[in-house]
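Protein chain data
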Amino acid sequence: MVDLKQQYQHIKQEVDAAVVEVLESSAFINGKPVQDFAREMSDYLGVKHTIPCANGTDALQIAMMALDLQPGDEVITPSFTYIATTEVVALLRLKPVFVEVDPRTFCMDPDALRKAITPRTKAIVPVHLYGHAAPMQEIMDIAAEHNLFVVEDNAQAIGGDYFCADGSARKTGTIGTVGCTSFFPSKNLGCYGDGGAMFTNDDTLAERLRMVANHGQKVRYYHDLVGCNSRLDTVQAAILRIKLRHLDQYIINRRKAADVYDAAFAGHPHIQTPYRAAWSHHVFHQYTLILDGYPDVARVRNGLTEYLARHQVPSMIYYPVPAHRQKMFDAFGGAAFDLPVTDWLTDRVVSLPIHTELDAEQQNYITGHVLNYLNQN
């Protein structure tokens, strides 16, 4: 799905030199590249504070801890997302409230959000899924009306732009109370291990985020908050500094690849290509099709993935089971949520390879096999 080896070959000299420099310094934890990366990431995003951490799941957990959410507080989140988004809600004994997504953008539906708010609601977690921005202006307006925190899950949309009604643009992950991201290797900005970060313009919150990520301490050995141990190591920060300089070109390459797919599948009666809302500069972490119009869509989708695998074409279903139907949420009443759009999408989505090294020959091979199978079914 992602050709990390080829991507590395293009930046090998830069990366190798940066890693050797860390090895020679032996400052493996909290070395200078960590602070340098945090500053450069903030400059790129146009946000005051970047707080690195060990991974994207930690980023979400630390954010909710720093906001002082308490057991039983309700957190509204889509069910159609990777499990980490909702897992941390349960981990902190908060109450997940699952809402629908827009069937075109795959992102939180503001109307469903508004209907889900109760006196116990304390936070909203919109997800910029697959690289498409959630409708943040509407979400932020609703949050302001009800005095709610907004924790952006930006793990799949780093570098993406959200276009506001006044014509201005803001980077996804910098609009809410706090933004969270993952630097898992397959992400648009990925390291060579685990990594994550949080973003905020709130000075007080930034201090709390740093403290929670560092055992609850601001002064060493004086622990004012219950925290955890979550650090981005120096080697990963050094690699991310290199890759950040290439991120805009990576996004351009992904969008070009998406354009090729769009053209190949245009007009097919059973394929819906990814929608691009006017407010979103889609960065295509995933290229996800919706298969529709088949009496037995499960048979067709399963057959397609098996057919592609036989021809050495990777494909994935992101995600085969929505959060509200996962066993881990039985104790939170997950099965009681009626989310027909989420269930409809879960049965129909399939993602194709998309990455910075895709070339025309590879895409012709991929699209040819997709169309060959679907045209026979």
